[in-house]
Every structure is written in structure tokens, then in C-alpha cells.
Specification:
Elements (H helix, E strand, L loop, with lengths): L1 H13 L1 E6 L4 E6 L4 E6 L9 H37 L6
Antiparallel strand pairs: 1-2, 2-3
Helix pairs in contact: 1-2
């Protein structure tokens, strides 16, 4: 079972989740281990006047990427945890 979990973790590290916010003004790539691998910002939103908007877009991209990554990890590990749960006595499930 430990090998299965390690295998899942390795596969999650290889998964790529693309996140785009602001109509494509900010794009980020995350893996299934909640790590941001890259971020791309449209040069047109990089200006002193739009600093607050850019900060909001980056925050949105990071939060969405973390959420998707967490959801993916829960999906991948859920079946393994369900299998463990089914082996427990009824009072411990």
C-alpha cells in the first residue's frame, strides 16, 4: 500500500494543470503536488497603473491552480483511502 501511495505521488508530480485567468492575461502551470511550475503574464497588463489588477490576476491564478491541484490529489488518492477504509472494522470506519 505504501508503494501504491508513492506511485500516486510520483504521478501527481508529473501531472500538469494549466490555469488561465483574466481572459488569458495570466497563465500558470501547476503539478498535482500543489507546486506552481511556471507563470506567464501578458505584457499588456504590466504597467504601474494596472498594478492592483495584475496582483489580483496573479492571486486568482495561484488560488485556482492550488485548488485544482488539491482536487486532483484527492481524486487520485481517494480510491486508495477508500480501500483502506473498507478493511477497518465497522466501528472504525
Amino acid at each position: 500500500m505504501q508503494n501504491q501511495m508513492q506511485n500516486i505521488q510520483e504521478k501527481l508530480a508529473e501531472e500538469k494543470l494549466n490555469v488561465s485567468v483574466g481572459g488569458g492575461m495570466v497563465n500558470a502551470v501547476f503539478n498535482g503536488k500543489c507546486e506552481m511550475l511556471s507563470i506567464t503574464i501578458d505584457p499588456e497588463v504590466i504597467s504601474v497603473e494596472d498594478k492592483d489588477m495584475l496582483e489580483d490576476l496573479i492571486t486568482s491564478a495561484v488560488n485556482e491552480g492550488l485548488k485544482r491541484s488539491k482536487d486532483l490529489a484527492e481524486e487520485r488518492t481517494g480510491s486508495l483511502l477508500d480501500g483502506i477504509s473498507s478493511m477497518l472494522p465497522p466501528g472504525l470506519r
